[in-house]
Design goal:
By secondary structure, this protein is an all-alpha fold. The protein has one domain (3-232): Up-down Bundle (Methane Monooxygenase Hydroxylase, Chain G, domain 1). Helices cover 85% and strands 0% of the residues. The longest helix has 38 residues, at 3-40. The protein starts with a helix and ends with a helix.
Length: 233
């Protein structure tokens, strides 16, 4: 490829990667704020999460549009094409993770608006939320550095989020059987837990895209053993 065209192509790739990471930063802020609102039951914090939605949606459209334009104009091959495809899929996962953060805030708002709400012990959700936020941050960092080893670690640690969620569900069922008054708020907390679990899944998906870019292997829907084997070979 002509050196001028090559440098121009690199600049276009850098531009969409920058926008992707900007989008990731917004989602991190959404999740961090929604988790803080969950800790404090601060209505203003919960409502502030909604303000990110429009900017996040705008970035998603921009990144997808630029990915499509590059594919049409540049006809990239091999690793460059995998990178563009992974960026597009990562954008979708970030947008959905942002939606889950918004869902958490809406549920917190609903809990606070109920009269005589029964606040239950949701320690497991606090742990799961912290793990999900950390996984998302590290997944974006692994994507930026194309760090396969970090990606493997993130995929392994997704199990910890699932374990905390399952432990909370078991405890919640017991609570609701013992005191039917908490069923309404209990279901809201259940949906919060499910949203946190899904954010962890989106972080894991982003980690899988790192392996796809670097190794050319699509490891989605494979066992952890096979994912690791493809990543290290």
């Amino acid at each position: 490829m002509d050196k001028h065209l090559s440098s121009q192509f690199d600049a276009e790739l850098n531009d969409i990667c920058t926008k992707l990471l900007e989008m990731g930063g917004l989602v991190e802020n959404q999740l961090s704020t929604s988790l803080q609102a969950l800790q404090t039951f601060d209505l203003s914090l919960a409502e502030s999460v909604f303000a990110y939605e429009q900017q996040l949606n705008k970035l998603e459209l921009e990144v997808d549009g630029e990915c499509n334009n590059i594919i049409v104009r540049r006809q990239p091959t091999a690793k460059d094409l995998r990178l563009i495809m992974a960026i597009s899929k990562t954008t979708t996962n970030l947008e959905r993770a942002g939606d889950e953060a918004v869902k958490i805030s809406k549920l917190i708002k609903r809990i606070l608006e109920k009269s005589n709400v029964q606040i239950i012990n949701f320690a497991e959700l606090k742990v799961a939320g912290g793990l999900a936020l950390d996984s998302l941050r590290r997944a974006l960092d692994a994507f930026a550095r194309l760090d396969v080893n970090a990606a493997i670690q993130i995929m392994h640690e997704d199990r910890a989020i699932d374990d905390e969620f399952r432990a909370f569900v078991r405890k919640l069922v017991t609570y609701m059987m013992e005191d039917p008054r908490i069923i309404s708020s209990g279901l809201d907390f259940l949906f919060i837990g499910k949203a946190i679990e899904r954010i962890g899944d989106h972080a894991k998906n982003i980690a899988e895209f790192v392996i796809y870019i670097v190794k050319g292997k699509d490891v989605r829907h494979q066992t952890m053993e096979n994912k690791q084997k493809h990543a290290l070979n």
